[in-house]
Design brief:
The structure holds 2 protein chains of 2 kinds. By secondary structure, chain A is mainly β. Chain A has helices at residues 4-7, 11-20, 25-29, 45-50, 123-128, 172-179, 210-213, 266-269; strands spanning 52-54, 62-66, 71-73, 91-92, 107-111, 119-122, 131-139, 162-171, 187-192, 205-209, 219-224, 227-228, 238-240, 253-259, 273-275, 293-295, 302-305, 313-314, 320-327, 333-339, 347-348, 350-351, 361-367, 372-382, 405-411. The N and C termini of chain B lie far apart (49 Å). Classes of the chains: A mainly beta, B mainly alpha.
């Protein structure tokens, strides 16, 4: 069965509507025409040909990789600040049936066999719980997948499947306390109100270990940068799992279940997994581990040059400030170093304000370029001594790309 | 048909938050009609463009199989073959080599 929302996107639905005499100006007319883009040459040619700069309702133009399910990334110039504005924040969905949730009738159910009881909260009841706030990066596990060589199938993201926001909500542990957590509980399972186009597609359901769920920074958030969550970022409430990749940050969350056995749905058992032992991650998800692979957990340390595009012109002999952001899986950034000699030597950049260990850390580095081309490379190191990699760590699904980012400046 | 009309009306009411999906024009070729009718039912066709032209024949076959076996796409065997052949001929890695 094809659900109602997805009919809109099909050619057949367009014909049916034309026949019915109904006008569809917003959907089929298109308010903003697609704009051309210049994307990294490392991305697959098919992306470079098909991606467009387009605005979803309520959003500034983002790089449209796919309409349905919608996958839109932030252009790098939107990531110059420590906080990413809501209307510039990336959009990522797995399933195409995305309802517009009515806050008045929305309910969050809490229960599961690992809970003492079953209960439900309205949005007002959720907001009545003690409020907590955390500034945290939400980054797609597959951010930069499009830069993998060889390419791997999937959403071929460039650099912008991430953003950093101030999230406000109730602590997940306080929400779980409403139902009461049994000591036998091993995982907390989240479902959102979005669903698949056909009934047989596995619903997008995710779990996290109890230890992470009861961390005081893990939230059921209803505000993003002081505003209600935008529709495209999970209105009216989403899970916020600081330090961990976006796959666990369930949007439009409608159920939270404590379970006494590892959740074995497709999106846990088969998807979002990385080979065991290949990445320097500390946080483990032991109930979901196999001998071969394990769920992705915390983000790897990373940085991005945001001040200049590759090939940007600068003035020879005049001081230029290169700037960007750095982030990691929640340990905090210790240093960012910059090389202007192709990676032979590095010098320390100046770090911007510290907005907490889960946030983007801005940085800048100034130098005087000589005439010609200068390759500028950034490398972040976190508080526990992890640094970015020089060589891509291959893995089948294209996760955790944290190869040092470079841009070439052209001085005349 | 009445169900369809009701479904479309319901979709219209909820339209403001929906993505503005523009038609995707894929390369003309044998099997394109099957691609549009089957693949396009669950996802926009830019997913095909985006994943090109780097998948070889075996990888495109694996993708079609994944859509059916893992994601439950209701695609007949004959259509699946036609879709696979279309993708390999028009968006496959070999296609690039041939045209160099």
């Amino acid at each position: 069965m094809i659900s109602r929302r997805n009919l809109l996107g099909t050619a057949g639905a367009g014909l049916a509507l034309a026949g019915s005499g109904l006008a569809l100006p917003r959907l089929l007319g298109g308010e903003a025409e697609a704009q051309p883009l210049s994307l990294s040459k490392a991305l697959p040619q098919g992306v470079r040909d098909s991606a467009t700069l387009e605005a979803l309702p309520g959003k500034k133009p983002l790089i449209k990789l796919a309409y349905r399910p919608p996958n839109y990334e932030s252009p790098v110039e939107y990531l110059r600040t420590g906080i990413t504005p809501n209307d510039q924040f990336f959009v990522r969905y797995h399933l195409a049936d995305i309802p517009e949730v009515d806050a008045k009738t929305w309910k969050l159910s809490i229960g599961g066999d690992g809970a003492n009881g079953q209960t439900a909260l309205s949005l007002d009841e959720l907001k009545a719980l003690p409020a907590a706030e955390v500034t945290a990066v939400c980054q797609c596990s597959g951010n930069r997948r499009g830069l993998f060589q060889p390419h791997v199938p999937g959403v071929e993201w460039g650099y912008g499947a991430m953003g950093c926001a101030r999230w406000k909500g109730a602590r997940l542990k306080d929400v779980l306390d409403k139902a009461g957590l049994k000591k036998e509980a091993v995982e907390i399972v989240f479902n959102g109100s979005d669903g698949p186009a056909v009934d047989k597609t596995p619903d997008f359901v995710k779990s996290i270990p109890v230890w992470k769920a009861i961390d005081e920074s893990t939230l059921v958030a209803y505000e993003m940068n002081g505003q209600p969550l935008p529709h495209w970022n999970g209105f009216p409430a989403r899970i916020v799992v600081p330090g961990w990749t976006g796959t666990y940050w369930m949007k439009h969350v409608v159920s939270i279940d404590a379970v006494t056995a590892p959740y074995d749905g497709f999106w846990m058992k088969s998807a979002y997994r990385i080979p065991v032992g290949k990445f320097p991650v500390v946080a483990r998800f032991i109930t979901q581990e196999t001998a071969a692979n394990t769920p992705i957990t915390e983000c790897v340390v990373n940085s991005l040059i945001t001040s200049h595009a590759d090939g940007a012109p600068v003035r020879a002999g005049t001081r230029v400030a290169v700037a960007g952001i750095a982030w990691d899986g929640g340990y905090g950034i210790r240093t960012v170093e910059v090389s202007t000699d192709g990676g032979k030597t590095f010098a320390e950049a100046t770090l911007g304000p510290d907005a907490g260990k889960y946030a983007f850390r801005t940085w800048s580095y100034s130098f005087i370029p000589q005439r010609g081309r200068t390759k500028v490379t950034a490398r972040a190191t976190n508080v526990i001594g992890q640094s970015q990699t020089a060589a891509l760590i291959l893995n089948p699904a294209g996760y955790h790309h944290n190869v040092m980012h470079s841009v070439t400046l052209v001085a005349a | 048909m009445r169900t369809l009309a009701i479904a479309l009306l319901a979709a219209l009411i909820a339209a403001p938050a929906a993505a503005q999906e523009k038609p995707i024009t894929l390369k003309k070729g044998a099997g394109l009609d099957k691609v549009e009718a089957n693949c396009g039912a669950c996802h926009s066709l830019d997913y095909i463009q985006m994943n090109s032209p780097f998948l070889n024949a075996a990888q495109w076959d694996a993708s079609v199989t994944k859509m059916i076996k893992v994601f439950g796409a209701p695609i007949s065997e004959a259509d699946a073959r036609a879709i696979g052949d279309y993708l390999k001929a028009n968006y496959g890695a070999e296609h690039v080599t041939e045209n160099r």
